[in-house]
Amino acid sequence: MNIEIKKSTKPVNYKDAITELEDRLKLVSINKGKELIWVLEHEPVFTAGSNYSKDDILDKSVNIQETNRGGKITYHGPGQLVFYFVIDLRNRKKDIRKFISIIEDTIVQTLQQFKIESHADRKNVGIWFNNNGKLEKVAAIGVRVSRWIAYHGFSLNINNSLDPYSKIIPCGITDKGVTNLEKISTLNFNKIDEVLIEKFILNLKNLNV
User: Fold this and answer.
1) Is 3-204 in CATH node 2.60.120.380?
2) pLDDT exceeds cutoff 80 at 54
3) Choosing from 171, 173, 192, 204, which is the catalytic residue?
């Protein structure tokens, strides 16, 4: 498995990141580039996936960046870990549902290592934490597959501000909340990116043919 691992230390502009992902997608599609895992933070931005509704924008003054990933509207900003990838499924099992499960398992297993119990939800995509009976999203998932190459990824709330979520209906879900790891636990999450990368690469082996 020959995957380039990239970590950005400064916040990255959303449009610039997507351009770079799509450039890598083209190279991988013609076997001229390595697969990619890219961990970063974004400058503050609201993004809208292919299934979003304008009714999900509560504050009409916010600037929405439309994108071609799946899903609806979410927020990215400092304090949130964004885990992007470009993964070639052509020589693996061509099973999108299994690939999404790999992402979910990666996040859940990583949080378990930090003594946080969470779970995936087939009806409401993402990773959820049960806060005394109230379900709160801690990680959002948005993936696009182009000719069996998967890209985009997921975001994990660590110590980001939750205030921007009040301006939208996050992921179009009205009856659940949003949280971050800082609200859940006092543990140090400085190395969580390394655990996520390790678990993701390990779980990808479940797609080997």
Assistant:
1) no
2) yes
3) 171
